[in-house]
Amino acid sequence: MGERIKSLIKDLPILTLGMFIGASAVHFFLIPSKLIIGSITGLSIVLNLLTSISVPVLIFIINTFLLILSYFLIGKEFGIKTVYAALILSPMLSLLQKICPMEQSLMQDQWLDLLCFVLILSLSQTILFRRNASTGGLDIIAKIVNKFCHIDLGASVSVAGALICCTAILVYDVRTVIVGLIGTYLNGLILEHFMIGFNARKRVCIISSEYKKIRKFIVEDMHRGATLYPIKGGLDIEDKFEIESLMTKNEFSYLMEYIKNEKIEAFITAGTVSEIYGNLGIKGIKSKPKVLLKDKKEKNFSIHKLNIAK
Fold it and tell me: Which domains does the chain have, with CATH numbers?
């Protein structure tokens, strides 16, 4: 329980930043341009025009119902973090309205407003989803669909948003509904692109006679897992080993630097993997391996000695 609270406190600044980005997108682009994107905010705008109840109040009411739903269907951690994110959205919108009231859309062009809103909102959603939270509203529905139907988050956002977007026909013309549907579709595509970008890993396969040395660097210096496969060369019919490992782009660059520095002859293939399931309990490293820093210092020292000798 203590670890969960520590994790929540640690994530609060990131959750706050993510929600501020989302609130800015709503305040500067969505509300002034009267866009009805498939979101709870878009639904709130429709209800606001039908009932005259303020948008922040409607967002709060709808989110409260969905937050209770998320707590029981998705999990306590997701529910608590999303509660925090959803609760600060309305105050942020109210604060932005007082500090920088917007009577006209920032870009004064509905299509530009649409593109700007979708890009900024997708960034906000990605930050929160990565921390097992959401902006609330539509994202909760998308997360529930993702968990129980195993549909990608981007597709879940697009489908759920399209249904909400159709409510705009009650107060707007068909053109506005179509614009909203296009925006909702783009939101799903861009969100999926951002999520894949954050989750992407390199699947590296290495064939080398010095496989033990490479395996040691991957496991002991980069703290990554490595799998060894016995193989037989098709050209020379020689028994060899292939090393396979998943790593980040930075870690792949460290590996290539190590192989170059050690002058290891190796045949290497690498591809991008966007979906990884399971937890091996190995998180990798956040900074450059010490062995590479050591090699760099020794190289600089040798160059310095050479210059002195000259």
Answer: 2-198 (no CATH), 200-309 (3.30.70.120)
